[in-house]
Amino acid sequence: xxxxxxxxxxxxxxxxxxxxxxxxxxxxxxxxxxxxxxxxxxxxxxxxxxxxxxxxxxxxxxxxxxxxxxxxxxxxxxxxxxxxxxxxxxxxxxxxxxxxxxxxxxxxxxxxxxxxxxxxxxxxxxxxxxxxxxxxxxxxxxxxxxxxxxxxxxxxxxxxxxxxxxxxxxxxxxxxxxxxxxxxxxxxxxxxxxxxxxxxxxxxxxxxxxxxxxxxxxxxxxxxxxxxxxxxxxx
Length: 235
Prior knowledge:
By secondary structure, this protein is mainly alpha-helical. The protein has helices at 7-24, 26-44, 49-79, 85-128, 134-154, 167-183, 186-205, 211-234. It has two domains: 1-119, Helix Hairpins, CATH 1.10.287; 129-235. It has eight helices and no strands. Helix 6 (167-183) runs antiparallel to helix 7. The protein is globular and about 65 Å long.
């Protein structure tokens, strides 16, 4: 490392590190996507200054932990490419730090955002929903058709495996959104969406789908279900 390096070069190196983490670490991309969603929600829910500050600090802490984890992994890989118990300890402890920060972020998000959703969701549901049981089936069928059609257009993957978009993520989103409308219970709905997220995550862990494919599938399932229930409510 050269001494007397220009300040602008130091900033360039720092941004190179952020870009590297974004390009190479899937979890970092998930953190940034979650950050964007939370910031949009903070604008919509009209959070107080202290609540926004706590969210910013928590978000920065999670991203910081992920970047330190990436740096430790790169350093260990530089020293040895072979399995070594001490190298494994270093990586596992760094990954544990990311897990702790992520759990903290979930707790903070729950404490700050859930009470506002708990008040908002019932009123939204009353406006959107008048629900006969067959709407769930219609939403599933429309989503299946949309997923297969998009796979045919993009020529990627098979109808039931791989490609753009993820059918599993789409159907998981349909199920979670339907539960949201049918139960009128925000806590149950959040658990349903958490399960849908786990389904999507498992598709990425198995390297069957990319992040963009599961996000696209989830949006398709959510929007189609929302549209179906809105049309029925408007009728």
